[in-house]
Amino acid sequence: MDHAAALTEQNRLLAELVHDRAPDAAVPTCPGWTLQQLVRHVGRGDRWAATIVRTGEFVDPREVPGGKPGDDVTGWLRESPRTLLDAVAETGPDVPVWTFLGPRPAAWWIRRRLHESTVHRADAALALGEAYAIDAAVAADGVSETLALTAERPPAEAPPLPAGTVLHLHATDDGLGEAGEWMVRGTDDGGVAWEHGHGKGAAAVRGPAADLLLAVHRRIPASAVQVLGDAAVFDTWLARTVF
């Protein structure tokens, strides 16, 4: 997948969605936020990642150059992915830089910012009562990235899945193949491991990739997707994977 192109597209769609909308509109899926705060979070986040890539080190988001929009808010938002893409090109996509998971190649931030944008565009669409559409392959990649981030978190006292318990996620879109199925397993140390594949689990969650993406991020209720088997397994997963 071309994560850079997808990031640019998601940003364009978000900018079109929020253009000329009331900045003080509430965003229910981000309690306490307004649309203005959501837009600032996304645009500043891209610039924050760009600054990290250029310096290789953590920086305070409040000190990011250009981190506040001026009068042209949507124009500022539209420019945000380019700051990151230019930084990665200048630094080198394979050069290790700071991330909250430890050093990763600079290009890691492009995929991270892509899926930050996909979910926050859904937040804006839900807040404004607009339909949310996303390419199935992009949504499926977002599910994979979410599982990868979860698997890299330190083991928890209250793990998302009991050791040996399997949660199967299955996107019903045509053409995704193995990229649209995930087997997630609780590990003995309280963590999780996952892989693409088909198999039986204690619970299976089925739906379009877009709905799976929004469900695992708690943007839509679990009842919006089909849950087979032990529904409590998925409910526990959702309750214990809040970032």
SSE arrangement:
Elements: H1 3-18, H2 35-55, H3 73-91, E1 96-97, E2 104-105, H4 108-128, H5 136-151, E3 166-171, E4 181-186, E5 192-196, E6 203-207, H6 209-216, E7 226-229, H7 231-239
Helix pairs in contact: 1-3, 1-4, 2-3, 2-4, 4-5, 5-6
Report the uncertain regions: none
Kindly identify the CATH topology of the largest domain. Four Helix Bundle (Hemerythrin (Met), subunit A)
> How many helices does DSSP assign?
7
Class by SSE composition: alpha+beta
Beta fraction: 5-15%
Helical residues, percent: 40-55%
CATH superfamily of the largest domain: dinb family like domain
In CATH, the architecture of the largest domain is Up-down Bundle
DSSP strand tally: 7
- Radius of gyration from the CA trace? 18 Å
The arrangement of helices and strands along the chain is: HHHEEHHEEEEHEH
Q: Tell me the overall shape.
A: globular
- The count of domains is 2
Q: Termini, distance in Å?
A: 25 Å
